């Protein structure tokens, strides 16, 4: 239902999708592009959303978006908001989730915000349009926008986009388009391409030449498992000084500074006593946290992805990391084992810890360090811990997805009690 809006409205908050919120006599209205503190004239109301027709009085937190593609490219949602204010909003989202989980006493969060042009992981789409390749991100609920500018990407990745367009255009195996994931590893860019055709000998020759010309150690074809199409040198990355060989498309924190901040917060949260009992790490991946944890105690590192687990195993020789394959949703680590650990560290996927959380609740480990990338899942997973009496000892909020609505948090929880590791 459409409705004309008469008069100015004041934007008082941001919604979870980054749209401005105004409270009006007609109810709550969402205004994309508005910033808290703006006084705006909204356009026609469609349900609960109205376009931003005119800014009557700008918020002190409103800035000129730094990227020429803002408003077209779907990579950034809130470039019209000053970064310090954006960090404050993201911290507020985490605090709200913890309050909804039932925590009455929440420590003042430490906050970290990465610098622009630090993004080292990106998933792009490409499409043939006439005689050119369009390579970039989808606009909001729309087509691919050619990424001719970017304030997020590491300059080394952005510089690769132009030659990538030319190379993709020359591939016989690309008909209408496909997708490409790029990880900037310590060994150089690592590419995982999905195309809508089947690569032949010509595709492989072109990819091999491109790999060599641009210093790309590996280019792989998406599939189960991925297939290496071009190999031009060793593929490696380092976690806390340990060299690993990530599989194609491996999970990598989007910014090195963000990864460092997460690792530092987790290590600082380890208990000072009882570490001989060892650490249980859940969702270990390729070892983002594992080797840093192993500097302090034996680490039983569980991971459900076979390729990531193989990478972790290969690198764990001579360390105190003990990798184990486990689908933690279908076969969670059981309560009795969790109860014996000096600390349980988990960095679950966006959807949260799922059925694994029930075993953590049942095991009641004394120390739980939870790394979150989703305030909604954070609230759901930590609510039963709060109900058991866990205290929130420390909180770190990390903004490594600049100008987006995404936020990371490290929550340090402790169950008060007596006895070693609070065993029951």
Provide a descriptive summary of the structure in words.
- By secondary structure, the protein is α+β, with helices and mostly antiparallel strands.
- It has three domains: 55 residues, Beta Barrel (OB fold (Dihydrolipoamide Acetyltransferase, E2P)); 196 residues, Rossmann fold (3-Layer(aba) Sandwich); 124 residues, Beta Barrel (OB fold (Dihydrolipoamide Acetyltransferase, E2P)).
- The protein has nine helices and 24 strands.
- The strands form five sheets. An eight-stranded mixed beta sheet has the order 8-23-24-22-21-18-19-20, sandwiched between helices. Strands 11-10-9-12-13-14-15 form a seven-stranded mixed beta sheet. Strands 1, 2, 6 and 7 form a four-stranded antiparallel beta sheet that branches.
- Helix 1 packs parallel to helix 9.
- The chain is flat.
- The C terminus is likely disordered.
- One of its GO terms (molecular function) is 4 iron, 4 sulfur cluster binding.
- Belongs to the class I-like SAM-binding methyltransferase superfamily. RNA M5U methyltransferase family.
- This is 23S rRNA methyltransferase.
Quick overview of this protein structure:
S-adenosyl-L-methionine binds at residues 253, 283, 303, 347. With 424 residues, this protein is an alpha+beta fold.
């Amino acid at each position: 239902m459409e409705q004309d809006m008469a008069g100015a409205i004041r934007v008082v908050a941001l919604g979870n999708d980054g749209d401005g919120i105004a409270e009006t006599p007609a109810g709550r209205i969402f205004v994309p592009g508005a910033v808290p503190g703006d006084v705006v004239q909204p356009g026609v109301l469609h349900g609960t959303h109205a376009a931003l027709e005119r800014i009557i009085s700008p918020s002190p937190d409103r800035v000129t978006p730094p990227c020429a593609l803002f408003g077209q490219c779907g990579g950034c949602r809130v470039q019209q908001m000053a970064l310090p204010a954006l960090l404050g909003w993201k911290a507020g989202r985490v605090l709200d989730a913890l309050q909804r989980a039932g925590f009455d006493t929440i420590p003042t969060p430490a906050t970290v915000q990465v610098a622009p042009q630090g993004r080292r992981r990106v998933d792009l789409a490409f499409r043939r349009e006439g005689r050119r390749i369009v390579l970039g991100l989808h606009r909001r609920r729309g087509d691919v926008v050619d990424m001719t500018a970017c304030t997020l990407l590491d300059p080394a990745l952005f510089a690769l986009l132009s030659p990538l367009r030319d190379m993709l255009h020359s591939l016989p195996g690309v008909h209408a388009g496909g997708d490409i994931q790029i990880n900037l590893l310590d060994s150089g860019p690592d590419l995982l391409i999905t195309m809508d055709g089947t690569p032949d000998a010509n595709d492989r020759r072109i990819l091999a030449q491109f790999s060599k010309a641009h210093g790309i150690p590996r280019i792989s074809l998406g599939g189960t498992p991925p297939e290496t199409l071009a190999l031009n040198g060793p593929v490696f990355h380092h976690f806390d000084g340990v060299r690993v060989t990530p599989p194609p498309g491996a999970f990598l924190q989007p910014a090195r500074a963000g990864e460092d901040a997460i690792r530092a917060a987790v290590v600082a949260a380890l208990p000072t006593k009882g570490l001989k009992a060892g650490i249980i790490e859940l969702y270990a991946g390729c070892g983002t946290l594992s080797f840093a944890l192993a500097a302090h105690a034996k680490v039983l590192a569980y991971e459900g992805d076979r390729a990531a687990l193989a990478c972790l195993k290969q690198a764990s020789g001579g360390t105190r990391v003990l990798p184990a394959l486990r689908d933690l949703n279908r076969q969670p680590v059981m309560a009795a084992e969790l109860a014996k650990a000096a600390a349980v560290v988990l960095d679950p996927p966006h959807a949260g810890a799922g059925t694994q959380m029930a075993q953590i609740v049942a095991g009641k480990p004394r120390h739980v360090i939870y790394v979150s990338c989703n305030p909604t899942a954070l609230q759901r997973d930590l609510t039963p811990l709060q109900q058991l009496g866990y205290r929130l000892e420390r909180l770190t909020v990390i903004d490594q997805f600049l100008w987006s609505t995404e936020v990371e948090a490290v929550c340090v929880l402790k169950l008060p009690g007596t006895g070693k590791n609070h065993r029951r």
